[in-house]
Amino acid sequence: MTKRLKILITGASGMLGRAIQRLLLEFPGEYVVVGTGLSRLEVSGSTASTVRLERLDLLDHEAASRFLQRHQPDVVCHCAAQR
After folding, report:
1. Which of 35, 50, 56, 76 is deepest in the core (most CB within 10 A)?
2. What is the pLDDT of residue 43?
3. Per-residue pLDDT, 44
4. Each residue of 17-63: pLDDT tens digit?
Protein backbone atom coordinates (compact mmCIF):
# COMPACT_ATOMS: atom_id res chain seq x y z
CA MET A 1 0.00 0.00 0.00
CA THR A 2 1.45 3.36 -1.01
CA LYS A 3 1.32 6.44 1.17
CA ARG A 4 -1.21 9.03 0.08
CA LEU A 5 0.31 12.41 -0.72
CA LYS A 6 -0.66 15.05 1.87
CA ILE A 7 -1.33 18.42 0.27
CA LEU A 8 -1.80 21.63 2.24
CA ILE A 9 -3.73 24.37 0.45
CA THR A 10 -3.44 27.85 1.90
CA GLY A 11 -6.23 30.21 0.95
CA ALA A 12 -8.67 27.38 0.26
CA SER A 13 -11.59 29.72 0.94
CA GLY A 14 -10.65 31.85 -2.06
CA MET A 15 -11.50 31.23 -5.69
CA LEU A 16 -8.23 29.56 -6.75
CA GLY A 17 -7.66 27.58 -3.55
CA ARG A 18 -11.26 26.35 -3.51
CA ALA A 19 -11.02 25.16 -7.13
CA ILE A 20 -7.79 23.26 -6.46
CA GLN A 21 -9.18 21.70 -3.29
CA ARG A 22 -12.37 20.56 -5.05
CA LEU A 23 -10.30 19.01 -7.84
CA LEU A 24 -8.05 17.12 -5.42
CA LEU A 25 -11.00 15.91 -3.33
CA GLU A 26 -12.28 14.07 -6.42
CA PHE A 27 -9.43 11.58 -5.83
CA PRO A 28 -9.89 10.52 -2.17
CA GLY A 29 -7.64 7.47 -2.47
CA GLU A 30 -4.79 9.52 -3.92
CA TYR A 31 -4.49 12.55 -1.67
CA VAL A 32 -5.04 13.78 1.87
CA VAL A 33 -6.09 17.41 1.46
CA VAL A 34 -5.84 19.99 4.24
CA GLY A 35 -7.39 23.33 3.33
CA THR A 36 -6.80 26.50 5.30
CA GLY A 37 -8.44 29.88 5.50
CA LEU A 38 -8.39 32.90 7.74
CA SER A 39 -12.00 34.06 8.01
CA ARG A 40 -14.35 31.99 5.83
CA LEU A 41 -13.91 28.49 7.21
CA GLU A 42 -16.95 26.77 5.68
CA VAL A 43 -17.14 26.69 1.92
CA SER A 44 -20.23 25.31 0.21
CA GLY A 45 -19.53 23.07 -2.72
CA SER A 46 -21.53 22.48 -5.87
CA THR A 47 -23.09 19.51 -4.10
CA ALA A 48 -24.86 19.48 -0.76
CA SER A 49 -21.57 18.95 1.07
CA THR A 50 -19.66 21.67 2.87
CA VAL A 51 -15.88 21.64 3.15
CA ARG A 52 -14.63 22.79 6.54
CA LEU A 53 -11.28 24.51 6.50
CA GLU A 54 -8.74 24.87 9.27
CA ARG A 55 -8.01 28.40 10.46
CA LEU A 56 -4.46 29.56 9.78
CA ASP A 57 -3.11 33.09 10.01
CA LEU A 58 -0.07 33.02 7.74
CA LEU A 59 1.19 36.28 9.24
CA ASP A 60 1.58 34.54 12.62
CA HIS A 61 4.95 32.84 12.15
CA GLU A 62 4.72 30.70 15.30
CA ALA A 63 1.20 29.49 14.49
CA ALA A 64 2.21 28.69 10.91
CA SER A 65 5.28 26.77 12.12
CA ARG A 66 3.18 24.75 14.60
CA PHE A 67 0.61 24.05 11.88
CA LEU A 68 3.29 22.72 9.51
CA GLN A 69 4.86 20.62 12.27
CA ARG A 70 1.47 19.12 13.16
CA HIS A 71 0.36 18.31 9.60
CA GLN A 72 3.73 17.66 7.93
CA PRO A 73 2.47 18.10 4.36
CA ASP A 74 4.32 16.64 1.40
CA VAL A 75 3.24 19.57 -0.79
CA VAL A 76 2.17 23.13 0.01
CA CYS A 77 -0.01 24.82 -2.58
CA HIS A 78 0.07 28.48 -1.58
CA CYS A 79 -3.09 30.17 -2.86
CA ALA A 80 -3.62 32.76 -0.12
CA ALA A 81 -3.64 36.36 -1.33
CA GLN A 82 -4.99 39.80 -0.60
CA ARG A 83 -7.66 41.18 -2.87
Report:
1. 35
2. 56
3. 55
4. 999 999 998 888 899 999 999 877 665 554 445 567 999 999 999 99
The pTM score is: 0.84
Expressed as residue numbers, the domain containing 63 is: 5-78
Q: Which amino acid is at 17?
A: G
Q: SS3 string of the chain? A: CCCCEEEEEECCCCHHHHHHHHHHHCCCCCEEEEEEECCCCEEECCCCCEEECEECCCCCHHHHHHHHHHHCCCEEEECCCCC
Nearest to 42 by CA among 55, 24, 61, 59: 55
> What's the CATH code of the domain at 64?
3.40.50.720
Q: What number of CA atoms fall less than 13 Å from residue 28's CA on the CB side? A: 0
Query: Residue 15: exposed, middle, or buried by beta-carbon count in 10 A (0-12, 13-18, 19+)?
Result: exposed
